[in-house]
Amino acid sequence: MKDTMKHTIASTISRKVSRRKFVVGSAAAGGGLALGMHVPFDIDVANAQGAAGTEVNAWVVVKPDDTCVIRIARSEMGQGTLTGLAQLVAEELECDWKKVATDPVTPGQNLARHRVWGEMGTGGSRGVRISQDYVRRGGAAARIMLMQAAAAKLNVPVGELAVADGVITHAASKRSIRYGEVAADAAKVTPPDPKSITLKDPRTWKIAGQPLKRLDTEPKLDGSKVFTIDITLPGMLCAAIKQCPVFGGKLKSFDEAAIAKRPGFRKVVRVNEAAVAVVADTWWRAKTALDALPIEWDLGANASQSDATIAAHLAEGLDAAGSNGGWGVGDAKKAIDAAAKKVEAVYRTPFLAHATMEPMNCIARVTAEKAEAWAPTQNAEASLAALSEASGLPLNKCEVYRPDLGGGFGRRGGTQDFVHQAVAIAKEFPGTPVKLIWTREEDTAHDFYRPISQCKLTAGLDTDGNLTGLQIRVSGQSINAWLAPTLPVGGPNERQLQGWYQKPDDAQFGYGVPNLQIEYAMRNTHVPVGPWRGVNTNQNAVYLECFMDEVARAANKDPLDFRRGLMARFPKHLAALNAAAEKAEYGKPLPAGVFRGIAQFMGYASYSAAVAEISLSDGKLKVHRLVLALNCGHAVNPGQIAAQVEGSVAYGLTAALYGECPVKDGRMTDLNFDRYQVLRLAEMPKVETIIVPTYDFWGGVGEPTICVTTPAVLNAIQAATGHPVRSLPLKNVKFA
Amino acid sequence: MARLNVNGKTHDVQAEPDTPLLWAIREQIGLTGTKYGCGIAQCGACSVHINGEVMRSCSVPLSSVSATDKIVTIEGLSANASHPVQKAWAEIDVPQCGYCQSGQIMAAAALLAKKPKPTDHDIDEAMTNICRCGTYQRIRAAVHLAAGQTEGNNVPAATVVHRG
Asked: Is residue A71 located within the same domain as residue A90?
């Protein structure tokens, strides 16, 4: 096997627990600056590389052959963060990029070393932007230590040395020495104070900032890439699971005797109050035995819920008195009441499942002394906490190994339901590893869905077509209320208002409206919700940007000109919009039958805009082209940024065209790809990416552009038909 | 028990006759490059070649396969990832998470075996596997590249405009 994960897994399995020096701590401990302390050489961690190597500091291990192993604390799920982080470290390290390898640290190691690698959560497009400063300082500190060791060895002042591609040169004496030759000495050098290090000006980057190829492609081409679902441990059993189809329902009973004689069968396990699993020698046998298991559910009160009851609940929130948060300027109601022209619309977006290609799965092995989990996780520290909680063992007796993920999109972050379940099952087989795999149907039936919402927007125009007042009221489900009550629930920073915040820097509302009122009516349902690539920017960009086109049309103005007139106070929003318009040649006439739509939005500290070109023939929509502009502050790898933009278009268009999770009798009805349809290659438009970095902030990449894709397409449809599309997905919309 | 010829080697597999080929390949033979994605032949993550035809192995029961059928999985497509499709995939940096890519590569290899110079329409028709990361634009370009076609290779490089 080619990927380093194999080595890590193998060496971890064989590692002697007694040799590890655990420090008891808390998964919730503060992050702190990674290099704020001297880190003693840890032989076990170094051995996890699979060959001898010297740990210069927590981020960098140098092998005798000059291979620089860069430690990665964030999860890789396709978004390219692994490569981007390695570029940032390598840039400051001044090593040879061709000799860079990566190694995923585990949350147990992180805890044992006082969270030297900082937080491990990978969501919210934060993988690079939040850790860029300390990983660059980690690379720079390692370089300084290697240079000092070389100076001592060559017996010259460090100031006389130069370094490039991992080779340190003393020009005067024409001597050079390689990183691999001084790494052991460098590890003994007192690390510099990270705060004293001057980082490179990103405009001078040679490794970062370049469109380098990903480091992790090779094993993805020949089947050797190992995902958690692919791991087989000695003596391992496999489990399939069913959860009560109605959210909130309970497991009443099952008839184990009915399946006990099936081949390979081991046991039926009551996983928790709402789930049952069958354990067998292979997963297919577990799955088919579970299919044959008679199960009785107590469906509970939620079985009466449906699309209609949920829609009515949300609709009530649109006009109800009071709100759960928001902000405004001036008096929007008064301005609209006095306006020469009034525009009003109600928009709706549905629940959506993530549908990661690798279904939910997890391996657990539990003994009285140790609990281990192998998990595709976006938050390995949350996995560790879940493992500890479910096993009953303290954190320092738990470890989580984290193979790269077969997709994440927000599904595999804080919830860790799959870890809890796998551990509950594995506890029934002490010492035996058990691999839990969900079917696709289970995966779609028990997601933490993109929250459903509705939005009423009202605008007032004066006789010259100027926007004098705007009211936005969104009624929908709060992710924070379901998943994270410690984060803002309601209030101006509630996630349901993402992209409409008054405060700058993260997801700011980008229009200057003299009288503005933004309100959130929290209307929660029985359906579990969570972050879904782009989170609430998706819905909010549809609501606002499609409505802006409606208002522009009512004002007899071009949608781009209308927006520009409102954006003088938001130069970065405007610059992204202009960049997309320019690249798409916005003013240029299109071929007959082709129509254009535009949208802009801010999220994850980045500014995005899109121009879509579509046609409608015989009632069938074709999306031809999407031009997207992104200002993410610094562009660590333009090639991978383009890949993320392309991917966000596919993910976003899937939602626009097909995405909905209908609820009937309290449960999800569309459970596999035959009904929960996904965009395929034939429908993929040509995507052109323009990156417009301004080098004065760090913004996210994985999520920001997804939210402008759908409104750009919908606005192009509005341009074609003269009618707005106010309810998604488009598969339910008939074009005349 | 079933006897299977996978990647040129004979395997005797202890599994029920209705076991899908996918799970025999993964669980009995131990080749895990072929993935489970949906189980109903929708997503194509489980694509293998059977006698040169691309098949979705999640929906092929062992009972329908005989020892004379030549099954090729991603691990057996080439030595050292040297198939033109694999080389093109590397050149264009197609994969993101990579989970679906075994199936994508097997589908593309089968397409090129039949149509060495595929049109965009041919690619649309043949490449129906699902990728949730959304690598479709690069898949199209890589199929063209593997076919030695530079036209139709429509991955526009990202334009970086420095305005800082």
From this structure: yes
Neighbours of A203 (CB within 10 A): 11
Q: Which of A407, A579, A682 has the CB atom closest to B97's CB atom?
A: A407
Residue A535 corresponds to which tokens in the numbers above?
């989170």
Binary contact (B33, A79; C-beta < 8 A)? no
Amino acid type, B161: V
Residue B103 forms contact with A (CB below 8 Å): no
DSSP for A20-66, written as a single string: -------TT-----TTSS-----HHHHHTTSS--EEEETTEEE-TT-
* CB contact (8 A) between residue B160 and residue A227: no
Q: What is the 3-state secondary structure (H, E, C) of A571-639?
A: HHHHHHHHHHHHHCCCCCCCCCCEEEEEEEEEECCEEEEEEEEEEEECCEEEEEEEEEEEECCCCCCHH
CA distance B94 to B142: 8
Is residue A264 less than 8 Å (CB to CB) from chain B? no
Give tens-digit pLDDT for A419-443.
Answer: 999 999 999 999 999 999 999 999 9
Could you read off the pLDDT of B74-108 as tens digits, one per residue? 999 999 999 999 999 999 999 999 999 999 999 99
pLDDT digits (tens, 9 = 90+) for A256-266: 999 999 999 99
CB contact under 8 A, B98 and A687: no
A391 and A512 inside one domain? no
Q: What angle do CA A183, A637, A219 make, to 5 degrees?
A: 70
Burial of A387 from C-beta contacts in 10 A (0-12 / 13-18 / 19+): buried
Residue A249: inside a domain = yes
Tell whether ipTM is more than 0.90: yes
Inter-chain CB pairs, A–B, below 8 Å = 221
Chain B residues whose CB is inside 8 A of the A684 CB are 134, 136-137, 140
Q: Are residues B129 and B99 in the same domain?
A: yes
Residues A98 and A87 sit within 8 Å (Cβ to Cβ): no
- N-term to C-term CA, chain A: 55
Number of structural domains (chain A) is 3
Contact A357 B99 (CB under 8 A): yes
Task: Answer yes or no: is A443 within a domain.
Answer: no
Domain span at B33: 2-76
Is the Cβ pair A579, B96 closer than 8 Å? no
Residue B136 to chain A, least CA–CA distance (Å): 5
Mutation site, A79, A236, A283, A284, interface B, largest B CB count within 10 A? A284
Burial profile A331-368: b = 16 or more Cβ within 10 angstroms, e = fewer: ebeebbeebeeebebbbbbbbbbbbbbbbbbbbbbbee
List of chain B residues whose C-beta atoms are within 8 Å of the C-beta of residue A575: 163
Supply A689's token pair. Answer: 């990416």
Does residue A442 fall inside a structural domain? no
Burial code (b: 16+ CB inside 10 Å, e: under 16) for A517-552 equals bbbbbbbebbbbbbbbbbbbbbbbbbbbbbbbbbbb
CATH of the domain at A692: 3.30.365.10
pLDDT at residue B162 tops 80:
no
Half-sphere exposure of A578 (CA within 13 A, CB side): 13
CA distance A127 to A700: 8
Of A701, A679, A49, which is closest to residue A355 (Cα–Cα)? A679
CB interface of A with B, residues 415-454, below 8 Å: 437, 439-440
Alpha-carbon span B20 to B140, nearest angstrom: 30
Write the pLDDT tens digit of every residue in A136-180.
999 999 999 999 999 999 999 999 999 999 999 999 999 999 999
Report the candidate in A240, A225, A445, A229 with the shortest Cα–Cα distance to residue A355.
Answer: A445
- Alpha-carbon distance of A343 to A718, in angstroms, equals 15
Q: Is B119 on the interface with A (CB under 8 A)?
A: no
As beta bridge partners, residue B13 has B2
